Amino acid sequence: MSLAPTTLEADVRRRVLRIESLTIAWMTVEAVVSLGAAWRAHSPSLLAFGGDSAVELLSAGVIFWRFRSTSAGAQTERLAARITGGLLFALGAFVIAASALALLGHGAARRSFLGIAILLSAAVVMPLLARQKRQLSAITSSAALRADAAESALCGYMSWIALMGQYITTSFAGS
Question: Which of 89, 12, 101 is nearest to 55 (CA)?
Answer without folding.
Answer: 89
